[in-house]
Amino acid sequence: MSNPLLQKLKNGDVCLNGWLTIPDAFVAEVMAQTGWDSLTIDLQHGLHDYRSAVAALQALHGRPVTPLARVPWNEPGIIGKVLDAGAWGIVCPMVNTAADAKALADACLYAPQGARSNGPIRAGFYGTASPYQTIANANILVLPQIETPEAVENLEAILDTPGISGAYVGPSDLGLCMGLPPILDREEPQILEIYERIIGATRERGQIAGIQNNSPAYAARMGKMGFQILTIATDVNLMGFAAHQAVKAGRELTSEAARA
User: Fold this and answer.
1) CATH topology classification for 4-259
2) Does residue 48 carry a catalytic annotation?
3) Which position among 45, 48, 61, 244 bears the catalytic label?
4) Which tens digit of pLDDT belongs to each residue from 64-79?
5) Domain coordinates of the chain in residue numbers?
6) pLDDT tens for residues 99-144?
7) Model-level pTM?
8) How many CB atoms are located within 10 Å of the residue 6 CB?
């Protein structure tokens, strides 16, 4: 068994990532059938806890989508647990230094590359031809979030940390830390320069760059810039937008019918 998302990324593909914030397995199951390359279970700002994350991973199992998880913090306990539950990659917030990056890599990878504790209670099912422990390190995506000026300053040192797969941009926090509004689809020249730097630094190292986006159009623009993992909105955003559009259209059409 291998990580299908990682294989696509190594082939140079641009991959679409969905975002799961609703702590419900049925929502994960529905999202898994809509064409995403990967789905990230959000335990940081999403409403997921560990139990709902496990349920979502069970709902995704066997479907053509790679499960990832964003953990609440750079803490080995929760990182190990979501990997043991079956996530193929970790997005970790607020990684600001090489020391932070090393702690993240250590928590994600088994010895001798890291210090992850053995006990893949559910992920162990993935080791069919070979034991899971022999394939895990080569297949787990380790993505620190670059979302502060300190992280940008230390970008190259973070990326040079053994075990790190690349970088995942958190535009909202990055802007907020720079005194800008906390939004996703950014246009500030100083932010776009940072994006270019991240893409260049990851590309030089044969690594992966990902970014959170609010709209498909902006995500496509980021793909052309060089980002390979493109997250588009969240399950909540997509549901709310579709509901808003349905209500708006319904109001307009019923008003037209009433005037006829």
Assistant:
1) TIM Barrel (3.20.20)
2) no
3) 45
4) 999 999 999 999 999 9
5) 4-259
6) 999 999 999 999 999 999 999 999 998 766 789 999 999 999 999 9
7) 0.96
8) 20
